[in-house]
């Protein structure tokens, strides 16, 4: 009949989930039940109470570097892995570390915002999607005003000067100035009367004489 020596346990402080156990056996293995008992006793303080259960799949081989992975359920129901590693074998005494790393916390997944569909650009529009407003350039307005006003005037007009381009929107007005060769001038008001496609129609009204 094989004799079993009484287990010689090492009392050690728990540091970062690492503790040690040792068992003296003649057959150079530690029974799974013995390893489970060691785990429950060594990790109880670290885990805040005696584990609900500890389970090891096999006996621990008495060879330096041999490993065994067991599972443990804490008092609050958390499942944890326990890693056993043989650190030394002194005759019939097998020393091993018991390590139970804390379970990793999974960061919550941030829900992805739904993608707003891009509105198609309407043909003939600008980058903003708004309809393009036709524009009559300053030079075109000045030339047309001079052409239409010249036959109606007694003096010889020299030029028409406008402050800028004319936007092709009904009701838009612009104040220009008609200049004569003798140095006099008359205010001239340009008013958009209608817009058909890209054609801008405008009225030219001549004001009183100025100096």
From TrEMBL:
Keyword annotations of the record: Signal
PROSITE patterns tied to this protein: PROKAR_LIPOPROTEIN
Region Disordered, residue ranges: 94-132
Signal sequence interval, chain numbering: 1-24
Family annotation (InterPro entries): DUF4333
DUF4333 domain sequence ranges: 15-91, 133-196
Pfam families noted in UniProt: DUF4333
Source superkingdom: Bacteria
Low complexity biased stretches: 101-132
Protein name: DUF4333 domain-containing protein
């Amino acid at each position: 009949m094989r004799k079993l020596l009484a287990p010689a346990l090492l009392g050690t402080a728990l540091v970062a989930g690492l503790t040690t156990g040792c068992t003296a056996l003649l057959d150079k293995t530690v029974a799974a039940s013995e390893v489970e008992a060691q785990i429950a006793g060594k990790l109880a303080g670290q885990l805040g109470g005696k584990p609900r259960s500890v389970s090891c799949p096999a006996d621990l081989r008495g060879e330096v570097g041999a490993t065994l992975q067991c599972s443990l359920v804490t008092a609050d129901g958390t499942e944890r892995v326990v890693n056993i590693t043989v650190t030394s074998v002194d005759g019939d005494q097998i020393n091993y570390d018991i390590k139970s790393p804390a379970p990793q916390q999974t960061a919550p997944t941030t829900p992805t915002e739904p993608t707003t569909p891009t509105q198609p650009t309407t043909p003939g529009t600008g980058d903003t999607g708004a309809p393009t407003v036709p524009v009559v350039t300053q030079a075109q307005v000045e030339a047309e005003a001079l052409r239409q006003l010249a036959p109606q005037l007694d003096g010889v007009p020299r030029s028409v000067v406008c402050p800028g381009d004319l936007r092709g929107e009904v009701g838009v007005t612009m104040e220009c100035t008609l200049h004569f060769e003798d140095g006099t001038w008359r205010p001239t008001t340009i008013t958009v009367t209608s817009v058909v496609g890209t054609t801008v129609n405008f009225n030219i009204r001549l004001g009183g004489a100025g100096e």
